[in-house]
Hints:
Structural class: alpha+beta
Radius of gyration: 33 Å
Helix content: 25-40%
Order of helices and strands: EEEEEEHEEHEHHEEEEHHEHEEHEEH
CATH superfamily of the largest domain: Threonyl-trna Synthetase, Chain A, domain 2
Mean pLDDT: 93
Strand order of the largest sheet: 1-2-5-4-3-6
Oligomer: single chain
Distance between the termini: 85 Å
Low-confidence stretches: none
Number of strands: 18
Number of domains: 3
Bound molecules: zinc ion
Number of helices: 9
Amino acid sequence: MHFTRLEIKSTRVKNYFQKDGRHFIELEENPFYEDGAGGQIGDRGFIDEARVLYVSDLIEIDRPLSAGSTVEIKIDVERRREIARQHTAQHIISAVIEKDYGAKTVGFHMGEEDTTIDLNGTFNIEETENASNEIVFSNLKVEEIILTPEEVSKYELRKDLSEKAIKSGNVRLIKIEDFDLNACGGFHVGSTSEIGIIKITHPERVKGGLTRIWFVAGKRALRDYQMKSEVLYESAKIFDASWMDLRSRIQKSFDDLREKNSTLKKVSEKLANYISKEIQPFEILELDESVASFLIRIRQDIPYAVKIAGTNNVSFSLPNYDRIRVMDLAKTLGIKGGGNGPIYRFAIKNPQEFMAKIKEI
Ligand SMILES: [Zn+2]
């Protein structure tokens, strides 16, 4: 594993300040890797008892520390290992896609859960995943080589050196045996087998005609597998089926439901038709939503109300009533809702009281 700055065990707090209740420090020597640098997520750990929350030019911590004091540094090495797995996996995936399909990596972003690579071409995801894992299983050595920009020019890199890298003097190359060579400043494993496994979870089309792939590697891949297995297994249990049959069972349930809904609609319409002939003026009925919605469309020539069962939603049919007077009455009684007439919809607990007042208009 190639890790830098782990040798710094203690340093001095150069500066400390508070802003909006958050705590920030500057260290004399900063061993913490910055968030976002080279597309990577940053280091975490402790500075004395203070937990590191975010690393940029300043370090955000969860409690105050005194400026000038000497502090003990503890870097979360396991987190670095996991970052190294994701990062080296990115080198492998990018190299596979470029070699096999000629598509170039134009962006890379690591998050706390998964990592994305933006590519400017088309490629087969399953084949890419298989070829990438072949590199993992082959246990290739991953080396770090420091060269001057002149020395680097003798090598063929996957990606040209940036202006910044050329100006910085020394260039750090990451070499995966004869498979890949690329300049990079992030964390990498010592051999590809440390990655464990690479899983591309899904692709996405993004701006500029690019394809973004989302992937997990190492412990993240294990966790992804564990969570997905659990969801599949628990979902299959609901259907009393094996996970292999789950998709067809869900499809069948959807088809059944669609058919039943269509039957329910027909029956509701028939029932609404039947009820519409029996309604008396100023009657208040309580019906299921599907029947109520048909009824209120079918019969609008007499005053009556339909309360939707299990709710406070009441539809009123009030033909030949002045809309302004209806709305004023509702407002006086503190009832919410409205309509353009003859149909009004109100949220109302006691429709009897409202109907009695309507009668008086
Ligand atoms: Zn790298």
